[in-house]
Amino acid sequence: MNESIVRTLSGIVYIALLVGATLFSEYSFVLLFGMFMLIAINEFCKLSNLRKTIPLIMGIVGFVVFSPLLINTFYTNILLNIGALFMAFMLLEELFEKGPSAPKDKTAKLARLTGYVILPFLLIIKLPFVIVGVYSPFVIIGSFILIWTNDTFAYIVGKTMGRHKLFERISPKKTIEGFLGGMLFTILSACILSQFDNFLTPVFNSSLPWIGAAVILVIFGTLGDLVESQLKRKAGVKDSGNIMPGHGGILDRLDSIIFAIPFLFLYYQILTYVS
């Protein structure tokens, strides 16, 4: 089958599964992203040459203990957020260093797995519950729409107008023009989303929270894509996995959101606290 057709069909199945499970119920949403987390743990272990038994146990325990269906307090959320933010800044430091070496120590690898994969997935699972304390599927679907909008228009604008490289050492195809084009169209999408939102906009009486979310997702989502590209370069692979034909693995599809989620989650926590 033609590669572009396979890629398209695979993408449709992925989007339908994500949106369908998110809309169906909080239980199907939590279960789906719990499964995504375990797959991502397996992919990370392969990238890092790490035995997966202990990491998978860590993921399952974290999922059971910190599931929003069981424990969803302000203080536990902040604790998880701090851990994920700490690892995000560590990875950003490595990203801007030339020729950093991947950690060889098992403890360091487990720490990176926890901060880069497990904690962000737990925050994604908690995200639809963070604003009003009950399950709000539009919050998570809207976040993914913004991510997909940025990916699409950054590619289109970069392909047609891109002249200046954004981060050539890691991703030669990304351009500054593409980044700015993605930002512009994502902000426009955020304004449109706010008109259909029954969760964020009524709570804050403004569309500005969605615009702020768009800016955070574009900036840190782009950085997340670069971080995962660097991890794959160190491992000498093109994709993190092959679970999605034509798209790679779960980490390849969710690299933007898992890196941006600690910043987005903190942003929503602050908005909720001051409102």
Verbal overview:
It is a single chain. With 275 residues, this protein is mainly alpha-helical. The protein has one domain. Helix content is 74%, strand content 3%. The protein contains ten helices and two strands. The protein has a two-stranded antiparallel sheet. Strand 1 and strand 2 (171-175) form a beta hairpin. Helix 2 runs antiparallel to helix 3 (53-66), helix 3 runs parallel beside helix 5 (106-126) and helix 7 packs across helix 9 (208-235). The longest helix is centred in the C-terminal third of the chain and has 28 residues, at 208-235. The protein is globular and about 45 Å long. The N and C termini lie far apart (53 Å). 42% of the residues are buried. The mean pLDDT is 88.
The run of helices and strands is: HHHHHHEEHHHH
Q: How much helix, percentage-wise, in residues?
A: over 70%
What integer is the average pLDDT? 88
Low-confidence stretches: none
The percentage of residues in β strands lies in under 5%
Rg, Cα atoms, Å: 18 Å
How far the N terminus sits from the C terminus, by CA atoms, comes to 53 Å
Major sheet size, sense and barrel closure: 2 strands, antiparallel
Tally of domains: 1
SS class: mainly alpha
Q: What is the number of helical segments per DSSP (H or I, 4+ residues)?
A: 10
Number of strands: 2
Question: What coarse outline follows from CA principal-axis ratios?
Answer: globular
Provide the spatial order of strands within the biggest beta sheet: 1-2
Pathway: Lipid metabolism; Phospholipid metabolism; CDP-diacylglycerol biosynthesis; CDP-diacylglycerol from sn-glycerol 3-phosphate: step 3/3
Enzyme class: transferase
Catalytic activity: a 1,2-diacyl-sn-glycero-3-phosphate + CTP + H(+) = a CDP-1,2-diacyl-sn-glycerol + diphosphate
Membrane topology: Multi-pass membrane protein
